[in-house]
């Protein structure tokens, strides 16, 4: 829910209020229900509101607590805010609203920065202490809610999206060569704190950043599962683990029903979203709205999974909505999806999510979604190979199975000016794999995928595409207690049954078996995967534009080779190499970056 923005000055001057207003206005799609601004001394805050909890004006932001001398802006939802409110009331706090935003402020007053350890939810928070001049920035454990930063001499700006920071002006938009290397190595994933732009950074997940009035700051990472077997889990049978996972998922799904508006489900027909529907039905939720999207087939590849989503909808009696998108609509919708991207995203389903979100937002304001289950429960086909690798070879094996291309390949693609002198992406993975914890090579990969790669690919994708239509997506498989449980689960139980074994075992207790035992599906968008007609024309236009030639990211020989055979060149992972190159240029042009 919502979008936040702001500026802090450290040089004695006043913040640029016009810049904060421009940032706030750019966030309007994230918060169509209200707009607020606050400024005092060197700090200004902006907010766009999507009304989900406490629909009255009492929940408006920026929110001030005059007695505590605190002002805050908040994006997200604290699912246990009612329990926290009761605890805080017993401690003597008094409330003027029914919002979770006020609970965040009171919790900070009571427990300081450690309050975040009590929050169950997704959140990006900025709190200003009026008396000390201190500002605290916080991001949730799995990075579900974004927080972008732009520093310049004497100033820090922040916003819920990168385009909002650009709207404020004064951002260094030069390319970051390290981030570019990562983008081309990990199918467009650029981990925090970097972005492809040198002047924009991201607050890492599970981080509290305290910024003092003089601009000095310190970070604290407040959460990280160990990915080791816990003593309390010793002796648990496979059935015990299934029981524990199913109960934890029930809790996660139930938590995400907290709202003063109806909550629907994005139903793909796969195991993950179907489990959410089953558990909501088990809770007794009636008239549950479910939504599916499909596309026309291309090159003999099916473009929808309606057979399974229809099966689940009928089985649980949901109010089901099916959206079939013709191929010619993909090219028309592409630019709108790119405009909604805080960073370039190459996954085929990004346009699907944008189109689906547009329709869903006409019906509900909140949905639950199945993102994250494959990373948390080892559902991808490359995980079994990692399980056979010695721990000492984890980084090497990860590069072999996960990287799109090698550093040597990148040297043949990139112009020398934007090519790092060494394999910076490999260095990142080696450092991550060498960190303490993670008993096995698979544990180490799941830790990296869950806390880095997933955050800046599927999680970011869902947030950007849904929030561009004022739709809040909640992801129960990223409930931090469920993630902790999965991290401790023996790898063999996760890998069983072709992947996600323990989750499939849980699914068989509540779902039709044909949904659980079906072949694994993906969100297909054939018109992009196979570079069909109008999409290919858009790609050619972008790569031949004067901006692309002036920018000089890719060697011209590389671009011409890709364009000569648009559906031939594939990354190691099978993705279309031309689309990865073109999408970056389309994103830069769309956001006015020259």
TrEMBL record:
Superkingdom assignment: Bacteria
Cited InterPro entries: Asn_synth_AEB, Asn_synthase, ASN_synthetase/amidase, AsnB_N, Asparagine_synth, GATase_2_dom, Ntn_hydrolases_N, Rossmann-like_a/b/a_fold
Enzyme class: ligase
Record bears the keyword Flavoprotein: no
EC number: 6.3.5.4
Key words of the record: Amino-acid biosynthesis, Asparagine biosynthesis, ATP-binding, Glutamine amidotransferase, Nucleotide-binding
Presence of the UniProt keyword RNA-binding in the record: no
Pathway assigned in UniProt: Amino-acid biosynthesis; L-asparagine biosynthesis; L-asparagine from L-aspartate (L-Gln route): step 1/1
Catalytic activity: L-aspartate + L-glutamine + ATP + H2O = L-asparagine + L-glutamate + AMP + diphosphate + H(+)
CDD domains assigned to the protein according to its UniProt record, in alphabetical order: Asn_synthase_B_C (cd01991), AsnB (cd00712)
Residue span, Glutamine amidotransferase type-2 domain: 2-214
Gene3D superfamilies: Glutamine Phosphoribosylpyrophosphate, subunit 1, domain 1 (3.60.20.10), HUPs (3.40.50.620)
Family: Belongs to the asparagine synthetase family.
Full protein name: asparagine synthase (glutamine-hydrolyzing)
Organism, as annotated: Streptomyces thermogriseus
Lineage, opening ranks: Bacteria, Bacillati, Actinomycetota, Actinomycetes, Kitasatosporales
């Amino acid at each position: 829910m919502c979008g936040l923005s702001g500026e802090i000055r450290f040089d004695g001057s006043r913040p640029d209020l016009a810049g904060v207003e421009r940032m706030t206005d750019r966030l309007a799609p994230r918060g169509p229900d209200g707009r607020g601004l606050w400024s005092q001394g060197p700090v200004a805050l902006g907010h766009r509101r999507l009304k989900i909890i406490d629909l009255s004006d009492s929940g408006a932001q920026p929110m001030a607590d005059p007695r505590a001398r605190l002002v805050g802006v908040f994006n997200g939802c604290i699912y246990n805010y009612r329990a926290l409110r009761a605890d805080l009331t017993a401690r003597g706090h008094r409330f003027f609203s029914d919002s979770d935003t006020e609970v965040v402020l009171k919790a900070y007053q009571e427990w300081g920065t450690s309050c975040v350890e009590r929050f169950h939810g997704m959140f990006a928070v900025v709190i200003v202490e009026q008396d000390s001049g201190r500002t605290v920035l916080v991001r949730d454990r799995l990075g579900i809610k974004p927080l972008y930063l732009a520093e310049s001499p004497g100033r820090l700006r922040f916003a819920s999206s990168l385009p909002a920071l650009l709207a404020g002006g004064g951002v260094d938009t030069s390319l970051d060569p390290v981030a570019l290397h990562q983008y081309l190595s990990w199918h467009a994933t650029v981990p925090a704190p970097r972005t492809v732009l040198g002047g924009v950074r991201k607050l890492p997940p599970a981080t509290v950043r305290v910024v003092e009035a003089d601009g000095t700051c310190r970070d604290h990472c407040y959460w990280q599962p160990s990915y080791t077997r816990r003593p309390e889990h010793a002796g648990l049978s496979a059935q015990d683990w299934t029981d524990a996972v199913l109960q934890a998922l029930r809790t996660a799904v139930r938590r995400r029903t907290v709202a003063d508006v109806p909550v629907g489900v994005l139903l793909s027909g796969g195991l993950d979203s179907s489990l959410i529907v089953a558990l909501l039905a088990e809770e007794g939720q009636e008239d549950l709205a479910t939504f599916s999207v499909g596309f026309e087939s291309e090159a003999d590849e099916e473009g929808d999974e309606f057979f399974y989503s229809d099966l689940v909808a009928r089985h649980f009696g949901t109010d089901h909505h099916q959206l079939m998108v013709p191929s010619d609509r993909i090219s028309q919708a592409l630019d709108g999806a790119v405009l909604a991207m805080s960073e370039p995203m190459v996954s085929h389903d990004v346009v699907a999510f944008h189109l689906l979100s547009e329709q869903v937002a006409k019906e509900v304001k909140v949905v639950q979604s199945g993102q994250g289950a494959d990373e948390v429960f080892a559902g991808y086909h490359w995980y079994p190979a990692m399980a056979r690798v010695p721990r000492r070879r984890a980084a090497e094996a990860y590069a072999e199975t996960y990287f799109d291309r090698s550093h040597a390949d990148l040297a043949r693609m990139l112009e020398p000016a934007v090519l790092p002198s060494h394999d910076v992406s490999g260095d990142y993975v080696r450092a991550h794999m060498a960190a303490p914890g993670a008993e096995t090579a698979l544990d180490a990969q799941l830790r990296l995928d869950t806390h880095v790669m997933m955050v800046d690919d599927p999680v970011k994708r869902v947030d950007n595409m849904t929030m561009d239509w004022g739709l809040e997506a909640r992801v129960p498989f990223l409930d931090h207690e469920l993630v902790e449980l999965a991290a401790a689960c023996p790898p063999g139980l996760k890998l069983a049954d072709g992947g996600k074994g323990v989750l499939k075992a849980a699914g068989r207790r509540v779902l039709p078996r044909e949904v659980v035992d079906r072949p694994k599906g993906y969100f297909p968008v054939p018109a992009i995967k196979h570079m069909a007609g109008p999409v290919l024309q858009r790609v050619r236009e972008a790569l031949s534009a004067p901006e692309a030639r002036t920018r000089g990211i890719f060697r011209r020989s590389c671009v011409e080779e890709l364009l000569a055979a648009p559906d031939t060149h594939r990354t190691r992972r099978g993705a279309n190499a031309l689309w990865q190159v073109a999408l970056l240029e389309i994103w830069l042009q769309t956001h006015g970056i020259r």
